[in-house]
Every structure is written in C-alpha cells, then in structure tokens.
Amino acid sequence: MELFPPIPLQEWQDTKQTLHRFLQIVGKIRMSASPRRNHWWHVPFHLTGNGITTRPMGIVDGNPLFAIDFDLVSHLLVMRTIEGRSASFAIPGHSVSSFYRETLATLEGLGVHARIPHPRPFDLSDADRPFAEDTEHAAYDPAAVNRYWRVLSQVGMVLEEFAADFSGKTSPVHHFWHTFDIAMTRFGSRRLDQPRQAGPLIREAYSRDVISFGFWFGDATVPEPAFYAYAIPEPDGLTERPLAPAWAEWAPSGHGHLALLRYDRVRKEPDPRGVVLSFYESAYRAGAELLDWDAGAVACPNGVTDPLREGG
C-alpha cells in the first residue's frame, strides 16, 4: 500500500465538511459519557484496524458500558454495549440531521440514553445551527473517507514511533474531532496560568508547557494537508531555529507560529517517513532548548529506558 497517498483538500472538501460534523456528533457523546481526563484526553478518538473508535464509555453518566466505532472500510457506524448487544447503520446517504437522529435512536434501541448538552458544531462556520437542522451537509464519498482513514493511520504510526523516544509525560496519539487533526503532545513541568478569557478549552489544554506534533488535512488557513509542530508558551527566538528538512517553515498562526511541513512535498521524497521524523525532532529540539527542558533526562531512544538493555 502506498505510503502517504495523495489527498488534496479540494477533491474531498464537501465530504470532509460532512464527516467532520459526523465526528463531532459522536465525539460530543464521548465527551459527556466518559470520565474527565487532564488536558481533555478523554475527548479524542483513537485509531482501530478499520476506522476510529470512541473507546468504551458510560457508567459515569448512568448508561451501560458502550462504545461507538466508525468502520471506514465497510462505512458503518457500529454501536456495542458490554452486554453483547450491537447495532449499526450505513453512513453514506445521511445528512448531518439524519445522522444525528439515527445515532441517538440506535443508541436508544440498545438501552443507551446518550446526552449532548450542546447539540451543534463546535468552532465551525455553522456553530449556531443545531445538528438536527443541518440538511445542507450530506456529501459522503466512501473512497475519499477510506483514504482519509489510511492517511490518518499511516501518520498515526509515525507519531507513535516519534513518541517512543520520550519518557516524560506525553499524550496518546489521538484524533481530535473538534479540529479534525491527529496529534501527540510532550509536556514539561512548568505550570501555565492561562487567562480566564482564554476559555476552558485552552486553559485545560495548555495548563503546562508543551510541545505538540501532528497532522491535519487542510483548512481555510492552510488549504492543503500538512504536518505541524508548535510550542506553548512560544519562547523568544523559536522561529530563528532551523527546521529539518531545510524547506520546512515557520508560519504565523493565531498568537504564535507553527512549524509546517507540506504533505505533498513530503510524498515526493525518497524516504517520506524519515523526513517527517526528522521534522518533528528538529521542532522538538528547537522548542525544548528554548524552554529549558532537560531533553537528555527524558530521552529513551527506540522506547527503551532499561539501562542494561544495550549490554545484554
């Protein structure tokens, strides 16, 4: 299978907009039906062998233990409970409105009373429109969605490999439904007191100093898929630090900068996986040195911290 197949944003923009809202519906169920974790780690999806999953949830919200999986090979939304009951429906052919109603009705049939406190998109252009009223977004190209999942899975494995070299506090490799990206974050120990006006999402996500690494499929700001990294707080001089390869760039983003590596350029390299790993490492070194992290103390090459491993 081709590593990093082409996935230009303009070719699946309508499908992506619909799928993004499908993920937000299920993601909001996950958020309200799972125990809260620091830095919102209870919220994202994780990858499976044929799609993405909420992971088990329930009990804390009064429901039986249950999970929801997007099967992006057969294009089904699959729901299961710990009692062994399951139900599914085909994803293609749904608008956001009908997907929302079908998801809740199917869960009800399994004895799961799902709750979505704010049943509308988060941080999207139609954030004021309830899911139940959105009949506009209904495009779903199964081939494009399957390719999205394959790219997501390939990038996920690169992030897992990169994560292995760090023994400090690190997030899982996970897929955020609000921003439609896949990411992994390394944490320092410095407490950050974010201002109240930053909002609860930012205050919890960045309550410690971090260097984060990930990939997105493109949006209005960067209309093409790209690998990225950033540091919070952004230290002085960060954008003067070199990135690898030399054609990677520091790009303005909100109140700071992102290290960016364009996906289509990576695809043309003889060793695209190696290029991405070098990019993440260069961004990490740039941030860690300026944030005064002791990178040597938390290094664990190839995932090994056993001091006797090399000798035998």
TrEMBL record:
Highest taxon of source: Bacteria
InterPro entries, sorted: DUF5996
Protein name per the record: Ava_C0101 and related proteins
Species per Swiss-Prot/TrEMBL record: Lipingzhangella halophila
